[in-house]
Amino acid sequence: MRNPLPDDLRRRTKHIFGILIFLGACAQLDAVDDVYDERADAPKDIATAVKDASRAGKRVVLVFGANWCKDCRALDAQMHKGELAALLEKSFVIVKIDVGRMDKNVDIAKKYGVPVDNGIPALAVLDAKGKLLFAQDQGQFASARSMSYESIRAFFEQWKPKG
After folding, report:
1. What residues in the chain have per-residue pLDDT under 50?
2. Model pLDDT for residues 73-91, shown as the tens digit of each residue
3. Homologous superfamily of the 42-159 domain (CATH)
4. d(C-alpha 28, C-alpha 22), whole Å
């Protein structure tokens, strides 16, 4: 059976389908690399983290950020490296909280004294009972891409539980 489409239209259709398949694959890869779960229930995640921290003698770190934020991704990458990753595993329960386009979970950030409009990522540190120990209120990590690994590690060393 002969194809009823002219050769030119058939080539363009194949080209368009190729582009759509490529874009779909890119979207899937990007979703796999998401740092923040955009569907997460932040209050529930915080409550769970506090319970886990209480049992394990750890502190809780709330990391407010978004998947579109390059500094948020840079901080997350640093947090998975070497000694820092080991320190975080041993001493902290990490809760990543998606702020969307500064229109999501902003009330939670405010509750913990973190003004996300000063920049993200922004962190708060809680003790094992959920009491606020520290809140970044000046956008200290908002330029995480230019921060050294050592300065990021020093921050977490400063806030790890004593003893």
Report:
1. 25-31
2. 999 999 999 999 999 999 9
3. Glutaredoxin (3.40.30.10)
4. 10
